[in-house]
Amino acid sequence: MDIRKNYIIYLLGMVMALASCTDPYEDTTFTAYEELPISLLLESQPEKFSMWVALMQHADMYNTLNLKSTYTVFAPTNDGVQRYLEANGWSSVTDIPKEDASYLVKYHTINQVKISQSQFENGVINDRNATDDNLSIEFREGGLNAIYLNGESRIVELDIEATNGIIHGLEEVLVPVRATIMDRLGEERFSIFREAVETAGRAEDLNTIVIEETDVSGNPLEYRIRMTAFAVSDEVYAQEGIMSLEDLITKLEVEGEDYMDPENGLRKYVDYHLLSQVRSFADLGAFPEGETSMNINTLATNELINIADRSGSLVMNYDTAANRGVAFIRENINCKNGVMHEVDHWMPLFTPERVTVIWDLTDYADLQALCDQYQNSSLNSTYTRTFTQEELSCYTWKSTPEYRPNAVAYRNNRGADGIWYADAVNHDHLRLDLGQSGWIEMETPVLIKGSYEITMTYLSYTERENTGYLQCSMDGKRLGSQWPVSNRRYDRALERGMTSSFTFDETGSHTLRIVAIDGELLTLDHIRFKPVD
């Protein structure tokens, strides 16, 4: 059949989940449109993609990618597929075990989103692929001819438009990431840091991909672990005279041998190199508007890393006296349970200066683990996830009535349903429907002691006229008076200064309580802490 003239499109309707290993739409076709869906479009260019098409067919994924849905597909060229086969000792794509072939195709496919070249940014792609992994984009010298996926495959053709998505041609087949952060630290060059992680009791955490639990009703809960690690090589340690774990313990002046105690010097050092969420290189450089520096929380209690833009370079913990900071050797090393960055300094604990802190009220590891579309900037429709008390540790609340079904929800979208999103941090917000006098508590990011001006930003829900009133307190101390969160159409994304200043006597995290005075809907985005003298 000449597919250039006799265009075929497969049965539209119920979209098969990508997780399926079978192809239920085999032998079911209709002749339809002049434009082509993804599989047929790839098949129409056999000189480039015939081997990838053969792999899709072997994997029972060919017809799936012809369905009426939306996909972004990274398709390796014939030469790339051939090199992949030779590297693995296979003579043809049918030699690949079917399960592995299916996983490979899914790894190159992002479902429900169309990501064009204009949306590429250095760093991790927010939308996860069909194996629930993040791919990463890297721009190298050479402009559009030097865009790399996962740091291993150059994109050789951009923006091939299909009726059901978009295709980007790859020079090489991506090797699916199966290594955890702990696996990455298994490289011989990280032997000291890895031993420190093991001795401090963090190895299991860095080797975990999914935590499965049940709630009080016996319903299954699944938390996908996504962390960030700043890894130090043996070569970097050697520059400080650190040749072994014992040398590191001595350098840190660790007291006591209970290295798993969170207050032990070695444990705090290891935790200082870990973040509870994925932070790509691009994320680390996403400063608050008008700022060139920010502090980020680590797993070490009340310890912060400072990130700053110095002369166009991203530097951590810049020491003015020493005229140097911590730079990056390798960024965005993809792992199955997060991302790793290799740094050029042994990076001991550092006390940064006060800076403006933008606290996104949805910026918690619990939400990232539970929400499929967490902070996704590419959504074309509303994503909402409501929670029960048993699912979350980041929020504690009491609603009226006590078991109000939609009391706390996460929402992410780009302007649907009447919410104004132009100023929303990370494209999402916290929705509170707590009922009259219902309340919610949460912990702030770590704040350096001192005085701050505190400002709350909310989002205007333009489909209703009612105004919700809230009252806030910090560590039990009242913040200003009652504040209206207006939902009127003319009152969009207004900022409300809750108090002129508030002084924190100690560096640390603090407890914010929000009380819904009149029980109306509250749509809250972020709080800004601006240092004042």
Structure report:
The longest helix is centred in the first third of the chain and has 13 residues, at 46-58. The protein has 533 residues and is α+β, with helices and mostly antiparallel strands. The strands form seven sheets. The protein has a seven-stranded mixed sheet. Strands 20, 21, 23, 24, 26, 29 and 31 form a seven-stranded antiparallel sheet that branches. Strands 22-25-30-27-28 form a five-stranded antiparallel sheet, with no helix packed on it. The protein starts with 7 loop residues before the first strand and ends with a strand. The protein is built from twelve helices and 31 strands. Mean pLDDT is 86; it is low at 1-21, 24-34, 415-420 and 489-493.
